[in-house]
Amino acid sequence: MYKRPKGTMDILPETVTKWQTLEQLLRTICSAYDVKEMRTPIFEHTELFTRGVGNTTDIVGKEMYTFNDKKGRSITLRPEGTVGFARSLVENKLYTNPDGINKFYYMGPMFRYERPQSGRFRQFHQFGVEMLGFASPYIDVECMVMAVTVVEALGIKDVTLHINSLGDFDSRIAYREALKNHFSSSLEELCSDCKARFESNPLRILDCKVDCDHPAMESAPKTVDYLTPEAKEYFESVCALLDMLEIAYVVDQNLVRGLDYYNHTVFEVISDDPSFGAQATLGGGGHYNGLVEEVGGPCSPGVGFAFGLERLLMAMDESQVEEDHLDIYVMPMGEEAKQLGLQIVTMLRANGYRVDMDYQNRSLKSQFKTVERKQAHFAMIIGEQEIEDEVVNIKCTHSKTQDRVPLESILDYIEKHEKGVHHE
Length: 424
Ligand code: AMP
Known about the structure:
Blueprint: H1 13-32, E1 36-37, E2 43-45, H2 46-52, H3 58-62, E3 65-68, E4 74-77, H4 82-91, E5 102-111, E6 123-132, H5 137-153, E7 159-165, H6 169-184, H7 192-200, H8 215-218, H9 229-244, E8 250-251, E9 262-271, E10 281-288, H10 291-294, E11 302-308, H11 309-315, E12 328-332, H12 335-350, E13 355-357, H13 364-373, E14 378-382, H14 384-389, E15 391-396, E16 402-406, H15 410-423
Parallel strand pairs: 1-5, 7-8, 12-13, 12-14
Antiparallel strand pairs: 2-4, 3-4, 5-6, 6-11, 7-9, 9-10, 10-11, 14-15, 15-16
Helix pairs in contact: 1-5, 5-9
The structure holds adenosine monophosphate.
């Protein structure tokens, strides 16, 4: 017996409806923001991630699914979506867009070799949005409003928008020095990863999952105290715009985010529902400069976010999910009836109805059980007498009425009575 690899899951038909509802809602929101879909490969050259995401991040350092293909090229299953998106933007020269800004979204599987637990998988799905080409607090705020719209549209309650600023390049240099001074006295007590991060990228120490409770974390310098006047002004504008729109948020000075490419605004949408435990971040993102240049393009600042679909599904209000029913179940009695049935189901499906039929000559009783299980609105019985009279017998499972309907009137009949079912 084969088992699925650890950290993956089969999305079975009974939960697929919920996924589809979520995906549809997300697509509708993107349409309202005029954000277009982009689909990039699931695997890319490894170097793209080491350069784009950053060598010192956990994602690149520890979590990538990397292998050599038959020609010895190093390939990685994408651990996130932004870098592949940036590569595609450059490769397809989309940055030459005369409107000055590109707004895209992606939705699909990502792969990270992490320790699986509730809300954390090795293959998981992200919905992400990227807005590129122009740096402005307005764009950052548009992105955050969109993220908030997503959770609201899904009926998710008890969430908080956390925001912070990592500042510009100069702010980060000053902050990096302050962090090194701060952690130098406690470095020996920190994990081996943090010791390496101390040299390569001290900001990542704040993101450590091992040392997160160490007292030096709490007392660490805060980014806001090291912002240059320009970066400070940028962040103040972001907060003022959020205030204007009456979007609730908290400034979370410990928020640094796991990827290297962020600067200025970073944000996370965090669930306050205790059942999420350590996996309470539904989504997050931020502003980035330099990423597009890093993958070979022109200077093109951007802002984006990604939500984990599994976590959105865990938090989503179930009442949004439409019941999954069949319109008509066709029940032929005998070979001749099966042929007529096949013609009828083909015609009904071509007219947009959701239809299924029995080909197994099962008893009427078992077929009616199927009608129940599939919550069919109509059961259509075709027996010998019906064939002779050129009619079918249609039973409405809601009103319990039953009618003999001439073959040429089937469509009219269903159309008329289907309305009745929906209005009940
Ligand atoms: P990140 O790309 O790390 O900022 O993650 C963005 C969002 O993706 C997180 O807030 C989670 O909702 C989701 N996510 C990240 N890693 C995982 C994972 N291993 N399993 C499930 N969801 C994840």
